UniProtKB/TrEMBL annotation:
A Pfam family this chain is assigned to: HATPase_c
Gene name of the encoded protein: pkp1
Family membership noted in the UniProt record: Belongs to the PDK/BCKDK protein kinase family.
Mitochondrion recorded as keyword: yes
Lineage of the organism: Eukaryota, Fungi, Dikarya, Ascomycota, Saccharomycotina
Subcellular compartments: Mitochondrion matrix
Record-given protein name: Protein-serine/threonine kinase
Gene Ontology biological process: regulation of glucose metabolic process
This protein's GO CC annotations: mitochondrial matrix
Source species: Dekkera bruxellensis
Any GO MF annotation of the entry: ATP binding
Amino acid sequence: MPESWKLTKALRDRIYRYATVKQTGVSLRQMVQFGSRPSQGSLFHASHFAVHELPIRLSHRVKDLETLPNGLAREPSIQLVRDWYAQSFEELTALPEPRIKDPEMARLLSGEKQQEEQISGHKKSLEEPVNRPYIFSDDGVVINRRSHSSSKDNGNGEVLIENLNSTHMHVGLLRPRRSYYISTPKDIVYPPEVQNYNKDVTKTLTKIKRRHDATVTTIARGVQSWKRKKNFTYVDNSVNQFLDRFYLSRIGIRMLIGQTIALNQQAMGNMYSDDYVGIICLRTNVMEVAQDAIDAARFACEEHYDMIEAPPVQLYCPEDLEFMYVPGHLVHMLFETLKNSLRATIELQQRLHPGKAIEDLEFPPVKIIVAEGLEDITIKVSDEGGGIPRSAIPLVWTYFYTSANQKIEEYDPSFTSGSFKPPFMGLGVGLPHSRLYARYFSGDLKLISMEGYGTDVYLHLNRLSSSSEPLQ
């Protein structure tokens, strides 16, 4: 972050006005309606939605960070994250509204016309009607996506896409479109203003996404530092609730940013894939993703313990099991879960055989079993790492409870986003954060432990994917 940047009173006041506005959720189903080859018009709608929705979400988090109790809001790491969010808010709200010179095109892109018609001598194909209802194959619900927008001529032959919402006029906000996805024709030539707007939004979102890469780790440093100063053993319930809300919101923000960037980059580079719509894989192969997570977790384990070969991991999964999901989310959840199981397995054997070299120890395998149901795909990760005492089970779902004897780095004023590598263990955010990833798309993560033997973690993934985001 540039040293000259600072959160001014005027910007803070504007952020707090935005924080009074309700957030708009986006479902996984809606995100994949673009298809593998979206039109520039549909991407325009997605970019415009993101530019107007993200500042609302960011504003809620800035307000939360500034109202943390008991001095936590004054921690340097917490203030650093707040400034990242505030600066991203400022950059998004500074983006100029797109101006479309062609009135017919402007009406289409404002969402005002959502029926089949001729545009600039081109008729829409029957395969891509603008106002086509979308029938969810999993539950038969018909969703008719419309945007009741308005367009205004600025007197110079240009039309400003404005979308003013009278209920939010007191805060001076532009209303985001009702839907992230709006169907537009693919067989017409869109004006350069459309493509230029999509490119500008992609460039801005890419910079913002990179800025926030280290948010989870930086928040962890701030809370850990605050805990030590206050001599707290555990984080109280109000802070845990804040962290749940904050991290869940971050998942949604990054999902919206990542999807918008990926859709635009695929279109600009013509990097189309029938399997992917943005970052969502329509046919996520569970076995392949699980194997990627196994390889990554075992490598991280070998690096941390300076060992030649990590404990074995046995995978039991149908080779052809596929469903619509975000592979990056699944890898994250499995990686964090496997990391815990591998660490518990190694450290139990070290306690049972003191003085024995780590390379001479024999480790029982960690087992991953995948089952397919009508509603869920369930993944069980089982280890023989000694288990967790029953009294400690509730604590594993609280933030910054960890059995690892490792401290994270103190706040460093020279620290910048992306320059800090999270430790293999000791943050105390892995399990609760992974559970949020599961719950983001209506799944869940549960743990059952047998003290003296091992632990089973059950990851339930919702395969229906019709629910909207859990916004708070």
